[in-house]
TrEMBL record:
Matches recorded under InterPro entries: YCII (IPR005545)
PANTHER family, A to Z: BLL7171 PROTEIN (PTHR35174:SF3), BLL7171 PROTEIN-RELATED (PTHR35174)
Domain YCII-related span(s) in chain numbering: 1-102
Organism: Paenibacillus solanacearum
Name of the protein in its database record: YCII-related domain-containing protein
Amino acid sequence: MSYTLMFYESQEDFAARKDPARQQEYLASWTHYVHALREAGIVVFGSGLYAPETAATMKRRGGEMAVQDGPFPETKEQLGGIFVIDVPDLDTALEWAARGPVDTVEVRQNIPAVK
């Protein structure tokens, strides 16, 4: 079964990505996790995302699509990256999500592609 793990990061986490004093520690926390996923052979796809302020959100208003700069949700944490993994069940997906170096991970089963 295919699941998407969506990792939410705080503004502090996004800032650590660019801060020379904290960048190495930030990257190290992810490196161990990424290697474990790859060694397990369950990664279908994975990617970090640029900071939320680089986002654009499209929303339909009155039948017209409007572009809003930045992410749509007004929350303290924003989507920082995703992994699509292929595991036997939800429990296994949740186990892998819990191993990630962030406090909030959303896990969703993927709908199979239409062939």
